[in-house]
Each structure stands twice: as structure tokens, then as C-alpha cells.
Amino acid sequence: MIFNSLQFLVFFIVITTLYFQLPHKFRWLLLLLASCYFYMAFVPIYIVILGFTIVIDYFAGILLEDSQGKKRKMYLIMSLVANSSVLAVFKYYNFINFNISEVYHAFGSDTPFPYLKILLPIGLSFHTFQAMSYTIEVYRGNQKAERHFGIYSLYVMFYPQLVAGPIERPQNLIHQFHEKHDFDYSRFKSGLMLMAFGLFKKVVIADRLAMMVDYSYENSNTLGGSTLLIATVFYAFQIYCDFSGYSEIAIGAARVMGFDLMENFRAPYFSASISEFWKRWHISLSTWFKDYLYIPLGGNRTSVSRWYFNLMVIFLVSGLWHGANWTFIIWGFLHGSYLIFAIIKDKFLQKMNWNFHKGHPNTFIDVILTFSLVVFAWIFFRAENVHQAFTIIGKIFDLSSYNAITLGISAGEIWFSVLLIVLLSLKEKYYSRIFTNTNVAFYSQLLLIVFLCYLFGVYSEKQFIYFQF
Amino acid sequence: MKKTIAWLIVILFSALYAFASYGDFEKTIDFRNKSNSIFGSDKYKFGDLFGISYYPLIKQDLSKTKRTFPAKNPTVNKKINLCLAHDSYLGKDFLASKKQINCADTIYDLEYPWFRGRANAPVLLDTSKTNVLVFEIVERNLYRLDKKAALNIVNLAAANQNTAPNPVLKPGKKKSKLKQFKEIIFNTRINKNLEFLLFDLRLFTPIKELKSYINYRFFNRLPPEVFISENQKQEYISDVKTSIEDMLTVSETEKTVALLNEIHDFYKGKGFDKVYFSIVPNPVAIIKPEALRYNNLIPMIQNSPNLRMPMIDIYSDFKKCDADLYFFSDTHWNFNGFTLWINKFNATLKADLSSR
Q1: Is A182 an 8 Å CB contact of chain B?
Q2: Which residues of A are catalytically annotated?
């Protein structure tokens, strides 16, 4: 069940209305059943995998809390291994096997390991990470083990953020399931508005840009550098609108029911540096890596070389988290390299006592430069394989390949997309929150956005990009 | 009061969801198509292609088109037992045409498997009459007619079989209760059903037309199922692009010729006195205002020296005719096209059977 569907609209109306009508003691059950149904609407059988991780981590949490010393560590490791194993089998086994088989081929023989004919369960990396954060926080003593199996299941399965985040922390979410949320009109309004704008980002901007991006990347061998450059810039906005649109619908849907989910995006393309970009892009994942990988590795409170190593590790793992493909690993490597280079550069400037940004920390040039670096890395993220990515890069940097722009779509569509990107940027910069103080303002804006979604939306039942992760 | 409203919302939307989950009922609700109120449907009123695109500048009210059935035409003295395998070109609206097929005593109405999920009703061959089998199919569906479908379309009743039994299609595996339940609970057509229930209402037609107009005029975009002629007068179904984009080789068409011969020989062997085949041309094969390059499928088949299947050839009649033969916003021929076919059909039977 995707957010941009009538099925979800009716589902959401029924569940939300019913939620506020039921006595508090039954609400968790309603949300859990609704979440199961929501997930099973994709591929029913994969609920079994989700059930497996839930059972493992539920008991791991209790055992962790009830035990001391080495046993605690053992239970944590067992839980993390179980979760990682699910990811390894479903997401990485075939990738690893493929790379092993390449080595075997080089020596003239075939891989002894069979390929698994399995489909990646939707949103597997998201809910696995959310489950892992629970056991880690219980181990650290920041979160009490949840004894109510239903509530714990709901923490992993809460339908608004089940398949593409935000990846929540137990300290933020679990207590909210125990609390009673009464209907709050102001939350209802702001939640609905967020959902409407998220939908607009998805169906009007992201899916429109997707037509051009898909066409260009599918025909990258025949198209010129100018077209591929524009397609890649469009992809930057496509993935942003697609993913932030999803997050806004998720956060909005939860807000209507009285839940607060963490912020996932904060106008990331206005970042003046790569480190700032990662504080604004997919915040729930970058903080996950920071809390559970970067800091345990020593963070920046270590030798310089170890610091660089730590940075590179989290970005390589982040790349691998996104997908079992070398393209994602290179994407992570690029971001890691950007950050390390920025640190070296800053140290050098400090040493030389040069300060270019006196009084102007967010210069326009820095924003453009950061955006360019991010866009460059997106080429690997979007490309089908490394070869295609290098072909595209080769063409973009080969000015002689620049010719007429053919994005497989009318000029009107291209200019309209540019207009949408400009309007979106202005809104993000100057009007980050849509005001819904009065009913007139709320309903007129809501109706307008919904009407524009219908009128200018591209409806192709296209799934959200991040579902595949 | 608030509580009552809330429960009403729950009940109403739950019922809507449950109703939309229950199968594919879009085709079964005809009353909305017939209704003239704002709650009626325009999905088919202005043609099936309009129902897909809602492009307002090509919009023909089918109910107001002139229904000119050809005059009754006394054909032959012989009594005819007619089996008519047909697609939608002779279906529903044109079924009144049965009256026009006045040569036949008995007409068996046979539909192709892609329209009808189950086997056709049994056919009784009558040795006291001339048993005639006619296949009518639109050009764009010709590729769907494979040997299996063609040899099973006539469900010959056992009593009449004087040769080997018909290789009737094996009944498909019955779905388990669990699978049926799963298909209802997780109905993959639920979004289409909800759209039909909530928004396939006449009161939304102007908004749909506005969206379609903007998309086409400013973005040159229509739903992928349809496209529009360059002179902006005719809407086509995208299936017909196979008639203009893929050029055919002789060996490709000879495969179709071989299939038609096999169908002919099979049914002759089953006791039919005459077997005919008729291919209704795609509109792009006839209307070419924008110089679309037709792949000549029909003439290549009909002119093949190897063809043994007698053809009711309307391609040449359509090419010669100056009148509009197709609806502008529908996939089908109009009553001019239909009349040409009926006349040709009656004339062919008259010529063939009078001489017997």
C-alpha cells in the first residue's frame, strides 16, 4: 500500500477515526493490526521475516535488562547478529555471491554457491535498523525493556514509518504508545497539511522529474552530456522530493494521531558544506550511524588517521545500507572523501590563518559547491552499475558531447519542472512551515494543494525510491 | 454528536473499502453509464478512449450517433446454422445486428477467451442446415489469437461430433479458499475500484477534462494507453501502434496464414460446411491523415498465395469508402463501418451458398 494511493487514503481515514473512538487500552491493538495489514498489502509472506526480528529483539531486550556482565554483551551480540543475518541473507547474499563468482570466473571456474531467488522485503533495512537501535539502547540503559509484546511489535511496525522511516529511537517512540492521545485539532491540521505537501512533492515534482531521469539514464549510451547533466540535477530533486515527501506524509499521518516522529530533512540543498548536508539529509539515518557506529568507533576523539578511518567506515557502511551494489559503495566513499577533504582543507586554512567566511558563514558559492558535489555523487546512486556511472560522468565532462537536450519529454514539461524546483527552493528557504492558524487559511490551502496534486500530478503507481532499501 | 459522526465515517469508509476489495465489479455496474444525473458515469458515454484520456477536444457522444442498421437483405434459400466468433466489434451495441444477419436461423454467439474467462456455450451442428463458422477479429487483437484459443472457441456438443473430440481447454486449477480470501483482502485492483466508486462520476468530468487538456496542450502528455492524430480529430488506442511502428516480413505474416489454414482445416474436419475469417482493420490502417506508415498486415495476409481460409475482406471496402468509419473517441467502428461489414458478410454468404 503506497501513500500516494486511494487505498491508503481510505485506510488512513478508517484507522485514524477508529483510533480516536476506541478506548486507550485497545488502541495499540488497532494500530498493530493496521500496521500488519499495511505491510502485508505489499507481499504478505514477508510479515514472517518481520515477525522473526520482532520476536528475537523482544526477548533480547528483556534478557538484556535482566542480566549482568558478560551475559548482557552476549545477548546484545546475539540480537545484532540475528538482525544482521536477516539483512545479509535477503539483501547482501546474492551481491557477495556475485562478487565471489567474478573471482571464480577469473580463474576459469564457476561459483560453488547457488544464487537465491528471493525478493528483498520492502523496507527491510529501515525496520531492521529500528529494531537494532532498541536492543542497543536497552543495553546502554537508556531505554527500559518493553514487556508488552504488542507495544514492542508496534514500535517496529508502526505503519506510517514502517517501510521508509524515519528510523525512530525507542526513547522517542515507545512511551508514546503508552500515552493516551486525545484528538487535537491543531495537530490534525498541521499533520494533514504536512501530508498534503508531502504528496505534492511526490506526485507533482518527484514523479514528473522521474519521467525525464528514467528516460535519460535508460538511454545514457546515446544521449549527450548536456542532457545527462540536466537529468542528474533533476535526479537530485527527484530523490529529495520523493524521500522527503514520503517522510512528510509519514510524520503528518503520525501527527494526526498524536504521535511525534523525528524530523528527517531540513532543506538539505541549502547546506554550505558536506557535513552540514548530512545534518539535514536523512537525519534519522545519519544520526543512527553517528550514535551506533561512529561514536563507538571513537568518533573524532582519537588520532587524526583513525578519525578519517571512522568517517570513511560510516559512509561506506551507509552506502552498503542503501543497496547491495558497488554504485552505492562508491557513493558512500565519495561522501566520506568529501568530508575528509573538507577537514584537511579547514585545518590547512586554520594553520595559514585564512578565513574566507568572516561574517558570512553560508556563502552562495559554498552552497553551490556543496550541491555540485552532492549531485556528482548522485550519479553513482542512480546508475544501474559502475560502468554506466562512469559513462555518464565521461559524457558530462566531455563538452564535445553536448548537443540538443532530449529528455524524452516536451519542452513545456521541462520548463514546468524547473519552475517547480525554483518554487520548492523558495518555499524551503523562506516559508518552511505552512501556516494553518485559521480554518479559512487551513482549508483553502489544503484544498488548493490537493487540487494541484490532482491537476499536475503524474500518476503512474510509481513506488517511493527508498522502499527498495 | 461528534461520536456519532465519527462512527458513521468509520462505517461508511470501511464499507467502501470492503466493497472495493470485493473483486472487479467495474464491468458489472452498467446503471451508472446509463444514468443522466451528475452521479452517472462518462466513462463510456463518449467512447472508451475518452473514458481513458478525458481529452475534451475529441469527444463524441456515442448515444447520439446515428444507428443506421443495414436493411434486411434476403440472402439465400438455404437454412444456415451460424457460429459467430467475435470481439467487441460485433458485441453489445452491435448485437442488435443479429437482426441484420437475416440469413441465419440459428446464431451462436461465441466470444474470444480474452473477453470471456470460461468456455463458450456448446454448439449443436445441424446436418439439415448449412453450418457456417465466421471469425471476426480486429487487427490489433490478431496476435492474441493463438492455436489453442482458436481451436477451443467453438465448444462442440458431444452428440454432434462425428470425428475426434474437440481438444477442450483443460479447466484451470480451482483456487483454494485461502487464495480466494487473500485475493479479496489484498485485492490488487482496489485502487481502480475505489477510483471508480469515488470519482467516476459525471460531476468530476469537467475537472478530469481540464487536467487532460493541460497535460496535452502544455506537456504533450496523455495516458499511455491512447494517442491522438496530428490533425486532432481522432483518438487511437496505443495497441494500434503495432500497425505503424513494426514493419512485417513475409515470414512473419506467413505464420499467421499457416494458423488461419490450420483453423480452417480443423473446423472443416469438425463438420462445418463453411469457415470464414474477417479482420477488421485498425483505424490507423484506414485513416492516415498524418501519413502514418501502415505495416500492411491485412493485405499481406489476404493476398498470400498460401491462404486457404476464405476471407470476408472489408479492408479494400474500407479503403475505398469516404465516410467516417470509426468513432472519434472510441476504439470501435461506427455504424457506417459496421454496415459495410454486414453488407459484405451477407453478400459473401449469398454468393457462396447460392452457388451450392
Answers
A1: no
A2: 322
pLDDT digits (tens, 9 = 90+) for B101-130: 656 666 777 777 666 656 677 777 778 888
**Boundaries of every domain in chain A:** 6-181, 186-468
Q: What are phi and psi of A69, to 5 degrees?
A: 60, -135
Summarize pLDDT for B12-52 with one digit per residue, the tens: 999 999 888 886 666 656 677 777 777 788 888 888 899 88
Which residues of chain A have a CB within 8 Å of the CB of B16? 10
Instruction: Count how many residues are written for chain A.
Output: 469
User: Is residue A87 scored above 70 in pLDDT?
Assistant: yes
Q: A13 and chain B: CB distance < 8 Å anywhere?
A: yes
Distances (CA, A) of A414 to A351, A411, A424: 46, 5, 15
Q: Please write the tens of the pLDDT for every residue from B298-309.
A: 888 999 899 999
In chain B, which residue's Cα lies nearest the Cα of A43? B186
Q: Do B220 and A412 touch (CB under 8 A)?
A: yes
Cβ of B16 under 8 Å from any chain A Cβ?
yes
Are A408 and A207 spatial neighbours (Cβ–Cβ below 8 Å)? no
Q: What is the pTM of this model?
A: 0.84
Q: In this predicted model, what pLDDT tens digit does every residue of B162-206 receive, in sequence order? A: 544 444 444 455 677 788 778 788 888 888 888 888 888 888 999
Put simply, whether B7 touches A (Cβ < 8 Å) is: yes
**Among B262, B83, B107, residue whose Cα is nearest residue B156:** B83
Cβ-proximal residues to A68 (8 Å cutoff; 6+ apart), any chain: none
Biggest alpha carbon–alpha carbon distance for chain B: 82
- CB neighbour class for A398 (10 Å; exposed up to 12, middle 13-18, buried from 19): exposed
Cβ of residue A40 closer than 8 Å to a chain B Cβ: yes
The CA distances from residue A127 to A57, A155, A177, A190, B348, in Å, are 12, 9, 17, 26, 69
The helix/strand/coil state of B21 is helix
Q: Which three cell numbers stand for residue B253?
A: 505474416
The distance of B354 to chain A (nearest Cα, Å) reads: 56
- Cβ contacts of A5 on chain B, cutoff 8 Å: 191
Retrieve residue B211's grid coordinates.
487536467
Separation between Cα atoms, residue A43 and residue A46, nearest integer Å? 6
Contact B220 A413 (CB under 8 A): yes
Residue A414 touches chain B, beta carbons under 8 Å? no
Separation in Å, CA of B190 to nearest CA in chain A: 7
Q: Is the pLDDT of residue A30 over 80?
A: yes
Q: How many Cβ contacts (< 8 angstroms) between chains A and B? A: 62
Cα B296 to Cα B285: distance, rounded to the nearest angstrom: 8
Q: Is B198 on the interface with A (CB under 8 A)?
A: yes
Write the residue in A21, A41, A454 that is nearest to B211 by C-beta: A454
Closest partner residue to A413 among B6, B194, B219, by Cβ? B219
- By C-alpha distance, which of B82, B154, B93 is closest to B346? B82
Our CA-based measurement puts residue A441 at a distance from the nearest CA of chain B, in whole angstroms, of 23
What is the H or E stretch that residue B111 is in?
strand B104-111
Residues 6+ apart with CB under 8 A from A365: none
Specify the amino acid at residue B223: P
pLDDT band at A23 (very low <50, low <70, confident <90, very high): very high
Is residue A290 left, alpha or beta, with left meaning phi > 0 and alpha meaning psi from -120 to 50? Answer: alpha
> Of all helices (H) and strands (E), which one includes residue A308?
helix A304-322
C-alpha cell at B194: 475505489
Q: Is B30 left (phi over 0), alpha (psi -120 to 50) or beta?
A: alpha
Counting DSSP H helices and E strands in chain A, the numbers are 19, 0
Contact A11/B17, CB-based, under 8 Å? yes
Distance from CA of B220 to the nearest CA of A (A): 6
Among candidates B198, B231, B196, B232, which has minimal Cα distance to B213?
Answer: B232
Dihedral angle of Cα B155, B157, B163, B168, to the nearest 10 degrees: 40
Cβ atoms of residues B341 and B325 within 8 Å: no
